[in-house]
Design a protein that fits this description.
With 380 residues, this protein is an alpha/beta fold. Helices cover 41% and strands 19% of the residues. The strands form 3 sheets. Strands 3-2-4-5-7-6-12 form a 7-stranded mixed β-sheet, sandwiched between helices.
């Protein structure tokens, strides 16, 4: 292993390289472009033995990845914002065909108005398709999660979407420990699918299905989602054994005695950690719960950490208009049947790149007793 200073987007590319995909198909879109630029260089100079398919749109990029996976090879693509929206139709087909495609999305706001800065609306709008979803805080986590994503996807036969916050993570230099190819190969064995397109053994993906068959296939997707918890934990244990870095479905910070717990996903977690430190120094018992896996949602773990807390402030970078922040919906759902539920605050922290400072989180905690739980809370 070596250490180097790399952009978050390059960390993703390094993780993809270590996973040895055979097909990469992508179309450039800010702030994701660095990922595929770096991968195209790797393919061009011989660092990565893969076919790089230059396509005319994101719809073509995801379609090529689907075709490659159907042909029985490891496939990768990346996108952002409206690019992910353009992929929407094919995202459904990949799930139904049970193809282990890995996609990295650099979170960026959805227009109108035109905006290239980060929020999580693009990926949250795809939450119900059947893709596993992971949100990364750091460049190191992004690199490591890409490797883990291929491992999990190929075990449960469902695609995985890995999220990095645009610009905040994709365009920031961080020190990253880069594994050796030997370590990566030990962790992630070659992809050997049981089902793939073969003229000597004719099969089809996505053929017509009557109601009963369709219903049962959808039921199988849900069961695989539920079973994926075990595979994800297996991947985390295996990764820890080989690389010495431990991950979980969620991450916590000063949560054991916390009276106020902030729930967050993505790169803003670091800002909230600093705020928790500052609040602790002021005598406020604050803590943090970071959501890594949003799909499948780790309800049991959430309950184990939040049931006995007094205040839970859910910090959203997206909103289901007419309802609530998507992370808030999941937290409320997980705690619904608990007798002693905490006060849960639905806080829309930032959309379209609105800046967030440590002082914003500290102020929120200090004014907690004046906040309402019956409506969406907005930053001034």
């Amino acid at each position: 292993m070596v250490k180097d200073m790399v952009l978050g987007s390059e960390a993703v590319a390094l993780g993809v390289k270590l996973a040895r995909p055979k097909v990469i198909s992508a179309y450039p879109i800010t702030p994701q472009t660095h990922i595929i630029e770096r991968l195209s260089e790797m393919v061009d100079n011989g660092e990565l033995d893969a076919s790089f398919i230059r396509v005319e749109s994101e719809l073509s990029a995801i379609s090529a990845a689907m075709g490659a996976s159907q042909a029985g090879v490891r496939a990768f693509t990346a996108t952002s914002s409206h690019g992910l929206a353009l992929m929407h139709e094919v995202l459904h087909w990949i799930v139904g065909a049970r193809l282990p495609v890995v996609l990295v999305n650099a979170n960026r706001a959805i227009g109108s108005p035109w905006n290239i800065w980060t929020d999580q609306t693009d990926s949250m709008s795809q939450r119900d398709l059947g893709w596993l979803q992971v949100y990364c805080e750091t460049a190191q986590e992004a690199l490591d999660t890409v490797l883990q994503a291929f491992y999990v996807a190929e075990k449960v036969l469902l695609p995985i979407m890995v999220m990095i916050d645009g610009f905040i993570l994709s365009h920031t230099l961080e020190e990253v420990v880069i594994p050796t190819q030997e370590q990566a190969d030990e962790f992630l064995p070659p992809y050997e699918p049981e089902y793939f397109l073969d003229i000597n053994n004719p099969l089809s993906f996505g053929n017509a299905a009557k109601g009963d068959v369709f219903y049962n296939l959808r039921k199988d997707i849900q069961r695989s989602m539920e079973a994926s918890f075990g595979v994800i934990n297996e991947a985390h244990n295996r990764f820890d054994d080989i690389f010495g870095r431990r991950y979980d479905l969620i991450d916590t910070y000063f949560i054991d005695d916390a009276e106020i717990v902030f729930v967050i996903a993505g790169a803003l977690t670091g800002t909230v950690r600093v705020a928790v430190d500052k609040l602790r120094n002021m005598g406020v018992k604050a803590g943090l719960l970071k959501i890594r896996y949003f799909r499948p949602f780790p309800s049991d773990l959430v309950r184990s950490y939040l049931t006995d807390k007094k205040h839970v402030v859910v910090l959203n970078r997206s909103l289901s208009f007419g309802s609530a922040g998507q992370i808030t919906q999941e937290i409320k759902n997980a705690l619904y049947f608990e007798k002693d539920k905490p006060f849960i605050y639905d806080y829309v922290l930032s959309l379209g790149g609105k800046e967030v400072f440590v002082e914003d989180i500290v102020k929120l905690a200090l004014n907690i007793d004046s906040l309402e739980t019956s409506k969406i809370l907005w930053r001034e």
